[in-house]
Amino acid sequence: MTDPRILLIEDDPSVRHGMAAFLRANGLEVQEAETCKQAMELYRSGNPDVVVADYSLPDGTSLDILSQVKRLNESTPFIILTAHGSIDLAVRAIKEGAEQFLTKPVESKALLVIVRRLLQQQRLRHRQEAANRERAGIMNPFQGESPAIRRLEEQARRMLEWDSPILILGETGAGKGVLARWIHFHSRRAEEAFVNLNCAGLTRELLESELFGHERGAFTGAVAAKPGLLEVGHRGIVFLDEIGDMDPAIQPKLLKALEEKTFRRLGDVRDRVVDIRLIASTNLALEEMVRAKTFRDDLYYRISTLTLRIPPLRERPQDVPVLAATILQSVATRMGRVPVTLSPRAEAALVDYPWPGNIRELSNVLERAMILQRGDQIEAADLGMEDRLAPPGDGPGELATLKEMERAHIERVLARTAGNVAEAAQILGLARRTLYDRLKVLGLNLSRI
Ligand SMILES: Nc1ncnc2c1ncn2[C@@H]1O[C@H](COP(=O)(O)OP(=O)(O)OP(=O)(O)O)[C@@H](O)[C@H]1O
Fold first, then answer.
1. Which of 19, 219, 397, 423 has the fewest CB atoms within 10 Å of its CB?
2. Number of structural domains in the chain
3. Any idea where the Response regulatory domain is (predicted)?
């Protein structure tokens, strides 16, 4: 494990050098900054565990840094040092989230004791948070150190405190649902409901009644009144997965619910007030759908003010090892097995693969390897990566149409998975429902594969 990292912000070089040397001699890694601007650059790139900042700096005060740091990561402990200790200032600093306020000159030994105590408290808090998340089934969507995933975390944290809708874009299996749940868990609405609806594959009538609910007798079969998800999610978060598949006839109703905060159950004559935060997600190019007029532009503009794009796994191969380790850990716990690690070759094979099905596919490969392998280390051969990378065998000729190629490829993958559609969908990088749709379009019959 790396040493705890301290960001020390002090414009007096002799004071800074003295403190930095003492902290380093005691096993801490220290980054030094002289100005607010430099401090924020280092904070963003270095992700320190604790910040120690002098109050007056050439381009502002440490309160400016404090508010930015707490917005990015409220659990970073912040210590303010000042030559002019005043009660007012101390109260303001603590109110804005500083953990400690110390009057200069500060004894290096005393500072070290405080830093260590804050680090210890932070560790306990993290452990507690991890345990809470585990209980709530919340996964960390920002695993890894790639710039793309760090940026995503920063953007997502900034969106937590608002109520505007969020649009999550990303390929299938990239973790859009995981991110939506994380946002709920960390937002002001965490104590309220999180309701989730996949808009793909539902008929217009079903989707409408799921979303808005219906009164008794609203349609044939509506034998009792039923509240819709907007009602169930009142004050909480409504997550609409695959919103690009929402029937155009329903889109204006959703827009009205977002803009006017009212909606009507099917068959009802009165409006109901609703307060929800919408998170929508899609793996489709919504902008293009707007241009092609298959998705309403007014709804698109309403839901896309805050957009998060999850990078596909192939754009951040350096994050694969840490993701794999976490997944292995949770699969081992679920199976009641001892922790399992990857051999260096196995890890390299995972890093090299392009992961069309993203984290879902990675998870699936690791889970299968765990089932097939009984020891405490997974070797490259246990992963079955050759099958995924194998060149096409006998199939349509060189001048086949795309449809023929698609058909042959789907058939081949299904044959490999012995007709298991869920697994085939993961390999193909498709949602299961999309694969069923393709099977229908291509006239493939599962029983004959
Ligand atoms: N950060 C993560 N850590 C561990 N596992 C993850 C992570 N993100 C995603 N997964 C795994 O990948 C699977 C797919 O995640 P999720 O359903 O959130 O993806 P998605 O982008 O919403 O997929 P789809 O587009 O098919 O709806 C989940 O079942 C989860 O187990």
1. 397
2. 4
3. 5-119
